[in-house]
């Protein structure tokens, strides 16, 4: 039996950040500091952790981060007003609204309020469609991170059968679109899929984006498949039952240190690109 | 062996148009005549036929149709200017740019120029994304026609495996999204799909949207599957090899008189709905 590759997200993220460090220096020489604004509504502890990690990573790379903390009782209108303020702030290059927002808020309306050229997380409908058509500046970060990992390890995509478990607007749907645009045959599964194990067993590439801890079982994995775990559940547990899947897979992402760190690196990359675009437009 | 259902597009279209006739009368009583503008660039004979059919159908139902014919050498800028003129014309409720336009024109840019509230053919990126998220006013007409046929015949979609052959922005991609939103497990195939016959054989519902005459073969069809032929090739030939598929299918759309007439009925329905929305907004 051949060895299973461990797809090391930390290594992929480090390579992206090394490239960014140079580009950030280039911008600094022109007096521009790429700035990511993160908006956190309420006090969900894991969301607060994610936002803090993103801010820390910005500072470590010499980028600026602006943090907007809003109380849990913020209305949709108030949230949109906060987004509009960031839209109009020329010092802010990217805007991230941490998902999920409290349930009384119309999250879709809030996402839509983000100006397309600052939508570095790819959450607007326009950003989604541009990604589905293959010409987005900023595809959703987790899907883009998955593609970056596959590409970094030279895993072939064209003509392969990719099975995506999950159909959320920021993960399952856009990663299905990106795999399709790279010429995979793509099956999208979800909670109402019948005989899920049989469907997953068709996959040369399996992407778990379902939000259920250790959901994907080893005997669902076709021997030699590539398994990507995009899940993040409480306690830093993925959607894939790593131990049972590992022996079947040709390659697999761990959790932690798989898709997660690459997602943050992609977010920063998009923010740097937004700053570079702004720099070009004011030259 | 049970009988194969013939999915009669003319019957489904007639039911839609009967409903529309009442609504058009209601609008007429208020002095509003729903109006579809069609733009044809160049002199492709089949495109001219489609545009003429749409115009005729409008008149037969008491709707207005405006036809804009532009020469084959029209530039992207000239085409967009023509679209902007229709955008600004309050008598025009829906705009259809006949696909395909001559290859020197940036078709995507032209589609994007159509105002979202007049995009009755669902061709803008925004309309595409709204459809993928399940809240489009006007999903692409052929995908919507396919869903209308399935619903008219009470064909269950939830939990079924739908295989879509084709991934164009106006057909394969949006119909995949619509089937997914109706809780099918959806596999999208295309020209680079390996072992296409095996993949198609997984489908409880097979949608052929590939643009190759009589492409889908009978032995690709799982016994009892529902086969939808969304192809229209020269000589009014579908993408499905009807004779070989018929014995395997539980239900099948013919060509002609399958998806085609329903597509036109949906286009008119969207135009009537656009007029109704305008009527409500000026009340």
TrEMBL record, chains A, B:
<keyword id="KW-0521">NADP</keyword>
<keyword id="KW-0554">One-carbon metabolism</keyword>
<comment type="pathway">
    <text>One-carbon metabolism; tetrahydrofolate interconversion.</text>
</comment>
<dbReference type="Pfam" id="PF02882">
    <property type="entry name" value="THF_DHG_CYH_C"/>
</dbReference>
<feature type="binding site">
    <location>
        <begin position="166"/>
        <end position="168"/>
    </location>
    <ligand>
        <name>NADP(+)</name>
    </ligand>
</feature>
<dbReference type="InterPro" id="IPR020630">
    <property type="entry name" value="THF_DH/CycHdrlase_cat_dom"/>
</dbReference>
<keyword id="KW-0378">Hydrolase</keyword>
<dbReference type="InterPro" id="IPR046346">
    <property type="entry name" value="Aminoacid_DH-like_N_sf"/>
</dbReference>
<dbReference type="Pfam" id="PF00763">
    <property type="entry name" value="THF_DHG_CYH"/>
</dbReference>
<dbReference type="InterPro" id="IPR036291">
    <property type="entry name" value="NAD(P)-bd_dom_sf"/>
</dbReference>
<keyword id="KW-0560">Oxidoreductase</keyword>
<comment type="subunit">
    <text>Homodimer.</text>
</comment>
<protein>
    <recommendedName>
        <fullName>Bifunctional protein FolD</fullName>
        <ecNumber>1.5.1.5</ecNumber>
        <ecNumber>3.5.4.9</ecNumber>
    </recommendedName>
</protein>
<dbReference type="InterPro" id="IPR020631">
    <property type="entry name" value="THF_DH/CycHdrlase_NAD-bd_dom"/>
</dbReference>
<feature type="domain" description="Tetrahydrofolate dehydrogenase/cyclohydrolase NAD(P)-binding">
    <location>
        <begin position="140"/>
        <end position="278"/>
    </location>
</feature>
<keyword id="KW-0486">Methionine biosynthesis</keyword>
<comment type="function">
    <text>Catalyzes the oxidation of 5,10-methylenetetrahydrofolate to 5,10-methenyltetrahydrofolate and then the hydrolysis of 5,10-methenyltetrahydrofolate to 10-formyltetrahydrofolate.</text>
</comment>
<keyword id="KW-0368">Histidine biosynthesis</keyword>
<dbReference type="InterPro" id="IPR000672">
    <property type="entry name" value="THF_DH/CycHdrlase"/>
</dbReference>
<comment type="similarity">
    <text>Belongs to the tetrahydrofolate dehydrogenase/cyclohydrolase family.</text>
</comment>
<feature type="domain" description="Tetrahydrofolate dehydrogenase/cyclohydrolase catalytic">
    <location>
        <begin position="7"/>
        <end position="121"/>
    </location>
</feature>
<keyword id="KW-0511">Multifunctional enzyme</keyword>
<keyword id="KW-0658">Purine biosynthesis</keyword>
<keyword id="KW-0028">Amino-acid biosynthesis</keyword>
């Amino acid at each position: 039996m051949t060895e299973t590759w461990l797809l090391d997200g930390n290594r992929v993220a480090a390579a992206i950040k090394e490239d960014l460090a140079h580009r950030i220096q280039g911008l600094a020489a022109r007096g521009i500091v790429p700035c990511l604004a993160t908006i956190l509504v309420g006090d969900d502890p894991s969301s607060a952790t994610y936002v803090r990690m993103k801010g820390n990573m910005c500072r470590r790379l010499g980028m600026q981060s602006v943090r907007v903390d809003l109380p849990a009782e913020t209305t949709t209108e108030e949230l949109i007003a906060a987004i509009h303020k960031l839209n109009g702030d020329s010092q802010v290059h990217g805007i991230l609204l941490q998902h999920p927002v409290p349930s009384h808020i119309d999250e879709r309306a809030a996402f839509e309020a983000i100006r397309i050229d600052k939508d570095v997380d790819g959450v607007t409908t326009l950003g989604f469609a541009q990604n589905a058509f293959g010409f987005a500046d900023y595809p959703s970060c987790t899907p883009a991170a998955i593609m970056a990992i596959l590409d970094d390890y030279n895993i072939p995509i064209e003509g392969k059968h990719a099975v995506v478990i999950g159909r959320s607007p920021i993960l399952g749907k856009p990663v299905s679109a990106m795999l399709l645009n790279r010429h995979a045959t793509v099956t999208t599964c979800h909670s109402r899929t019948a005989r899920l194990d049989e469907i997953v067993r068709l996959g040369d590439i399996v992407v778990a984006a379902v939000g259920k801890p250790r959901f994907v079982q080893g005997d669902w994995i076709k021997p030699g498949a590539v398994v990507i775990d995009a899940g993040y559940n409480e306690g830093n547990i993925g959607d894939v039952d790593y131990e049972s899947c590992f022996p079947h897979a040709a390659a697999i992402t761990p959790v932690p240190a798989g898709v997660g760190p690459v997602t943050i690196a992609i977010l920063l990359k998009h923010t740097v690109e937004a700053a570079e675009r702004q720099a070009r437009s004011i030259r």
